[in-house]
Automatic annotation (TrEMBL):
<dbReference type="InterPro" id="IPR019801">
    <property type="entry name" value="Glyco_hydro_35_CS"/>
</dbReference>
<dbReference type="InterPro" id="IPR026283">
    <property type="entry name" value="B-gal_1-like"/>
</dbReference>
<dbReference type="Pfam" id="PF21467">
    <property type="entry name" value="BetaGal_gal-bd"/>
</dbReference>
<comment type="similarity">
    <text>Belongs to the glycosyl hydrolase 35 family.</text>
</comment>
<protein>
    <recommendedName>
        <fullName>beta-galactosidase</fullName>
        <ecNumber>3.2.1.23</ecNumber>
    </recommendedName>
</protein>
<dbReference type="InterPro" id="IPR001944">
    <property type="entry name" value="Glycoside_Hdrlase_35"/>
</dbReference>
<dbReference type="InterPro" id="IPR031330">
    <property type="entry name" value="Gly_Hdrlase_35_cat"/>
</dbReference>
<keyword id="KW-0732">Signal</keyword>
<dbReference type="GO" id="GO:0004565">
    <property type="term" value="F:beta-galactosidase activity"/>
</dbReference>
<dbReference type="GO" id="GO:0005975">
    <property type="term" value="P:carbohydrate metabolic process"/>
</dbReference>
<feature type="active site" description="Proton donor">
    <location>
        <position position="158"/>
    </location>
</feature>
<dbReference type="Pfam" id="PF01301">
    <property type="entry name" value="Glyco_hydro_35"/>
</dbReference>
<dbReference type="InterPro" id="IPR048912">
    <property type="entry name" value="BetaGal1-like_ABD1"/>
</dbReference>
<dbReference type="InterPro" id="IPR008979">
    <property type="entry name" value="Galactose-bd-like_sf"/>
</dbReference>
<dbReference type="InterPro" id="IPR048913">
    <property type="entry name" value="BetaGal_gal-bd"/>
</dbReference>
<feature type="active site" description="Nucleophile">
    <location>
        <position position="234"/>
    </location>
</feature>
<dbReference type="InterPro" id="IPR017853">
    <property type="entry name" value="GH"/>
</dbReference>
Amino acid sequence: MTGLSVRGKELWMNNEPIQLISGAIHYFRIVPEYWEDRLLKLKACGFNCVEIYIPWNLHEPKEGEFNFTGIANIEEFIRIAERLELYVIARPSPYICAEWEFGGLPSWLLADRNMRVRSYYEPYLEKVDNYYDVMLGKLKPLLYTNGGPIIAMQIENEYGSYGNDKRYLNYIKESMLKRDIDVLLFTSDGPTDLMLKGGAVENVLATVNFGSRPKESFAKLQEHFPNTPNIVMEYWNGWFDHWGEEHHQRDPQEAADTFEEMLKNGDSVNFYMFHGGTNFGFYNGANFSDKYEPTITSYDYDCPISETGELTPKFHAVREAIAKHKDIGELELPKPIAKINYGKVVMEESLNLFEVLDQISAPVQNTHPETMEKLGQDYGFVLYRTFLKGPLGKAALTIQEVRDRALVYVNNEYKGIIDRWDNKTVMIEVPKEGIQLDILVENMGRINYGPYMYDPKGITEGVRFERQFLFDWTIYSLPMDNLDKLSFQETNDHSLDKPTFYRGFFEAEEIGDTFIELPSWTKGVVFVNGFNLGRYWEVGPQETLYVPGPLLKQGKNEIVVFELHGTKKREIDLIDTHKLG
């Protein structure tokens, strides 16, 4: 078996021409129990390949500590694809973008304020090498050349959209080669002169990414690389959503018609995405064009397969396009997954954050309000506390470079928001007896694309009262990765002006997918049986959080909501319908 190779303008597999019809599915956005379901639907649509990004930050969450269990069990996902006779394209770039936190780069890189990512900077490359020693070692037995399903692997990711450091790109290439990665290597970039010139690597297959106008995009590829196969590594058939936007949707037939245009010409296509999934926990990324724009919890992407695994009209339109050109047989699907309405859950127990700080965080003292990364923290929240002596007249409290959204409290009383968008100051005054000043900062996702990726979180420069910088801080890290120490109690205090943990329970006789609706809540995070589902925010477009059935158990189930602004109605609804946009 010779594997995947390039012969002029054609791709060949084992001495025969092949047209790859591939779809992106991110194992890290799907509970493992549903991996096979999603891959079966990919195959049922007529696809012969699955493409996966590999997020470094998931697999090395702390430097030198690796994770390949549960949702991070990449080897199991690839073996399922192999069992279903699907080829695999792997993209361990080490940067992936993917609207994923920091583009897949681990946040601990930013503990070094001199760090330079995605370039020939030796301290960065040393970290990449340590990661590749482990990750590529895991992938090597799964290569097609070693009897596995992986037929191709990417060098970096859309690098021409970021830089032009050829020494760096060649270093990544050589890093793969010297670790015996002997399948076809490729790059992928946007179809412009700047991007293709910046991102291409000598003697490596170049591919392009686009959502429309394939004829023009492939013409630009051929202009730079004559006599190369036409491959779109990311055909954007849908799009992602930021908080505060409308849900993006694309006409299914138009997306299928654009695909069929490529199909008829023999072009190879990878759908980005075929099935998006969910940004569980705090793994959503963010973009920055003219302002900071964090991505929502849902990564539905308006795909052929919805966030919850349902076939969409786009699935059927795409399958019909393939069926015109290839024999894909009758549509055979896995058993449907039940969607269940469990009803209303009353959140009878609560604890406000200020009462339990010492239960869930060990404070540190510091002259300056350190960043999250300097504190050794990846995600979540940080609370900064200091004392001001009075009397001082009313003046503006300012946070220089808050990342990303801060709630300000004086003596535990809410005073306002300072955020990365519009709210830059809060007015406070200090009486003779002085005040306790608390600032709760939420990391809403590190930037995953573009020139502003250096995105440390928390208070990144300092806090000023009027013109005076404030020093001497007590700092509480709140990663929200273990809430077991919370001792809940029944209470009637709604804590409308304080960040509060609420807890409720419900019984489940049957297990199925469900959706959490929070109609009277403002902004926060939801945990089901200890699993962080992700963020909610009343600005939309997302109105429900998806709860995959495998997170539930027969009998008693726990729901904890960390609400930043309080609620007037301590109830949530578990319904059988996803509301997005």
